[in-house]
Structures are given as C-alpha cells and as structure tokens.
C-alpha cells in the first residue's frame, strides 16, 4: 500500500507543479489572434511573474485515463516565495500545501498525511523555481507554439502548447488556453500513457493579502504521518 500511495503522490505532485507554474505565469500573456508572436508572449510572461506576489483562484481538475473520468474542485492560493495551497472541497476534502520548506499531501478520509521536503520539488523544476525567478517559460516548455488545432473553450481565447523538458519522459504535452484578459483559463496536461489532467481556473485574484499561516499544516490527532524528507 505504501508503494502504491507513493506513486500516486508523486504523480499528483508532478501535475501540481505544472499547473502552478502555468497559473503563476498566466496573467502576463497577451493574445492577438492567429498572428500572436509566441516569443513576445513568453517575454510578457517573464516580466509578469517577476513582480507577482500572490494569487488566489477557484479551480476544477478533471482527470481522464484508464477508461474513467474524475472531476474535483476547490480553491488555490499561491504566495511568493514558494508557498502554495490546493484545497479540494468536492467531491471530498483533500489538501496539498507547502510553506516553502515542507510540502504536505493530506486526505482526511484516509487519515494519512505525507510530508516531502520542498527542495525535492525544486529538483524537477517545481513552481518554486518560477517563484524565485530562476527560469523562463520558453526554456521550460520546449517548442512553445500556438495550437490552432485545439478548440478554445471561450470566444477570443488563444491556445498554446509545449513540452516540459524536465518531465518529458512522463508528460507528452502541455496545452494552455489564454483569455483576452491575459489570464490562462485552462491547462491540459497530456501524459505519455494517454491519460490527461485538465485544470480550469476562475475568479482569479492577483496580489491579494494571504497570511503565511494558510501555508502551514499540522496533522490532526490520529493521523498517520509518512515522511520523505531525504538528504
């Protein structure tokens, strides 16, 4: 059971990383139809995340794979440097939270919490690298380009695609949908095994006041704690 749980956690953390990377960088994009200059968009993204301090958004996550489809939703909070909180409310409570030092994944129903050193998330180009201004979108997503063959969900939106270099063995493609107001409203992560995870974002609020306490976690009494802190 421990091995199975570990695989599930690693897969979910990888998807969290990718989603947070793109969510943080989203508001800097500019859309101008088919003539959109991708390099200009990437430069605008880089300029935006350099000053973005925090972000709050409602999200819906849809996983498709193995003949099944699972939809979950909740609220996401991000704060520089390296703080994040994914709070799932439907169909059941779940939590992924990091204070920049430690990352926790907690499912109350399972009465188990898994703890990982945040630096381990950085090793695979986690969102912390972006929060600290270490990388650029064009370098992170190889072959970043327009995706005219992918239908946007909203009128006037632009769709981009690229391959995350650090996760190319597991992720075949990332698709981003950018609305005219410069926000990414949808992210689709295509796995090499044919499965996909889609994130839809709404009610995004930038540079909101978020207390650091929101990114701390203490396992409730009776919760089994599994630690994977490493060296």
Automatic annotation (TrEMBL):
InterPro entries attached to this UniProt entry: LolA/LolB/LppX, OM_lipoprot_carrier_LolA-like
Coiled-coil ranges from the UniProt annotation: none
Highest rank taxon of the organism: Bacteria
Signal peptide: none
Keyword terms of this UniProt record: Lipoprotein, Signal
Alphabetized PANTHER family for the sequence: OUTER-MEMBRANE LIPOPROTEIN CARRIER PROTEIN (PTHR35869:SF1)
Record protein name field: Outer membrane lipoprotein carrier protein LolA
Organism: Candidatus Sulfotelmatobacter kueseliae
